Amino acid sequence: MMNLKRDYRSSISLLLPALCCLLATGCQLTGRHQGPAQYTPVMEPHGSMPKELSKTALPKYTIEPPDILLIEAITLNPKAPYALRTNDVLYLEVEGALPDAPITGLFVVEVGGVVNLGIPYGSVQIAGMTVPQAKQAMEAYLKSHVINPVVFASISQLAGQQQIAGEHLVGPDGSVNLGSYGSVQIVGQTTDQAKFTIEQHLSQYLDAPEVAVNVYAYNSKVYYIITEGAGLGDGVYRFPITGNETVLDAISNINGLSEVSSSRIWVARPSPHAGDVQIMPVDWKAITAQGSTTTNYQLMPGDRLFVAEDKYVRFDTTIAKFTAPLERIMGFSLLGAGTATRFSGRVLQGGGDQRVR
Length: 357
Description:
Layout: H1 2-24, H2 26-29, E1 68-78, E2 89-95, E3 104-110, E4 114-116, E5 123-125, H3 131-142, E6 150-157, H4 159-164, E7 166-169, E8 175-177, E9 183-185, H5 191-202, E10 206-217, E11 222-227, E12 235-240, H6 247-253, E13 261-269, E14 278-283, H7 284-289, E15 304-309, H8 311-352
Parallel strand pairs: 11-15
Antiparallel strand pairs: 1-7, 1-10, 2-3, 2-6, 3-4, 4-5, 8-9, 11-12, 13-14, 13-15
């Protein structure tokens, strides 16, 4: 037992000098981020910065990967002569059809290039024909069922239109895929410019095309929240910008400040000029406890909202990282010494019980 105590005192005597050295350098360990003071910020008066209750509209949105566009086909008329194909939709109306089996409405050109006129007429092959040719073919076919049929036919929807309309992902190369009409480069353009570009591209295949272009998902413009982890790893969160977020909105997206965070917060805004750093300190207490809007800034695309760590938690974590290996070594040493002591005691006790015969 005395040996166990001596081993424990010996381990403590080795640990104390190391802890003293660590305490002596503690200020350096916790000074990794000193906040906005360590920068030479490009500051603007609080009154000129957009914030809660005095927000501003963001610049015209430019399309970039991986935005998702919603393209709607308004007018897509094929250039003449247009040959009908599978999945085209025709509007048909037939005079002289049977009273109990009228032919009127929308009819799809089915696989195989046929249009099914229903019972009792059957199907007519029209793929590859123009609309007037398809009209003549249907009239000739229906003469075997009715007397003097007159067919009125027009294109209601193109097969290609189904490929254009809908949601379109802007690819890594900055283009959108329009199906059989190919791809169009629209990166860096506004929605109005993209509309013009797409219509110009479609005019190679269609007669005076017209489309509507809107952004369905704003994925390319984001802001970041960086939270220091007090030695346990920093957190980075990425959120799409909608043009309405403030500092308080951003913090609410990560469910508030964590137990390792401090109230030292600032917004770092990228600058187009090399070397310029725009830093806007945030008064967290004023925003939350006093309802102040002075530093509750409106966030812009590319902003970094930085939440500094609690320096005391950081210091505690640093000490824990330093002492944990020593504690393990000391624990193994004490365990081994204790096991050896108990084993030797049992051997001595067993030897004393032996009898001399």
